[in-house]
Amino acid sequence: EMELRRLLHQVRCWLRVMFVLANNLYCIPTYLAWMWVIFYPLRLLLPPLYWAIERQLFRLLLLMVSFWSWSAEYYVDEVGEDVSECYGDRSLVLVNHQSTADVPLLMASFQGKRSVTEHLMWIMDRLFKYTNFGAVSMTHGDFFITQGKDTRNTQLQRLRDHISEVYLRRGLKWVVLFPEGGFLHKRRATSQRYARANGYPVLEHVTLPRVGAMKTVLETLTAENLAKTHKGEEPLKWVVDITIGYPDMGKPLDLFVISGGFRKQCVVHMHYRRFPIAELPIHDTEALTKWLYDRWAEKEDLLDIFYRTGRFPGRLHQGGGDEAEKKDLAPLRETPLRVDFNIVWIVLVHAFFIMSTLFHVALFRWLFSLVPLW
């Protein structure tokens, strides 16, 4: 009986993998067909309308990705500060990076945050450009960064240009950045060697972050800079800090596990904090680096508590300390907020993408039939 259960579980998992592959096939090409064929004239004639349509389709695509983890019973609970007042403001989102599951789980977390999802700009490694979702991200306006000392200055200038030419023009809001520059298991040893050599904290649950991209985003989107380059544009108002905690002593999920549901049901916790931009020493690299390192040391403490107790504290240093002394503290969530979805809406969105795919297949078949064959 045990063997039969194991076999049935494997069959179910591989059927889920096939479903996720099919979901990609009837969602991504039809999104590209809408944006690069059907609606493309609007991009030239009425750009605001074109990008308004794109943002809605992008939001629906992210809902499809979010559905993968939710349907596998990998749930997201949000704890810490209530950052709802940041939803409509331009914000820089800083997240610790553990695995390929981080992005789809963040997509799930963002789904319930009013208009946040469609106004996201992700900053990610250029290798993501060559994945199944790469063409969607390129269309939407995400930024792909190349790692390495040799290209650092060039990449940061590209980021400045991208913010001016894409992020601002398309009315995007939240910039999502993984300052560690890679997965925890890949960077931990290097980070610890660097910390020991330079007198920084030796971290176990996170790695020392890099400040370059963060500083570039902050400086480019200050009110002073925008007054010179993009008068009337809204500056950054908040830094939203998210700490992702995986269960089982920090054993992260990954995208393949999410696709198939290979692991047992679990809850991933996301601890939210927010900091007014006015608190950050934006133009002082050394002070900004210290500020960022301090936040990552706090993430280390948060995760240490989480792995020992199974839950995040609402706020560090409740009885005192730097974080408790922050001005304008956000309200804390009294209980974890479970990210949930409306199954009827999900079914309707699946139906929309399937019908769109059938429409585009029929349309392109008809167009090809008009081409004479020799």
Attribute tags:
alpha/beta, Glycerol-3-phosphate (1)-acyltransferase, 8 strands, 374 residues, eight-stranded mixed beta sheet
Write structural notes for this entry.
Keywords: Acyltransferase, Membrane, Transferase, Transmembrane, Transmembrane helix. There is one protein chain. It contains 13 helices and 8 strands. The protein has one domain: Glycerol-3-phosphate (1)-acyltransferase (3-Layer(aba) Sandwich), CATH 3.40.1130. The protein is globular. With 374 residues, it is an alpha/beta fold. It has helices spanning 2-38, 40-45, 47-71, 102-111, 134-140, 152-167, 184-198, 212-220, 223-229, 247-250, 255-260, 285-309, 343-369; strands spanning 74-80, 91-95, 120-125, 143-145, 174-177, 238-245, 266-276, 337-338. The protein has an 8-stranded mixed β-sheet with strand order 4-3-5-2-6-7-1-8, sandwiched between helices.
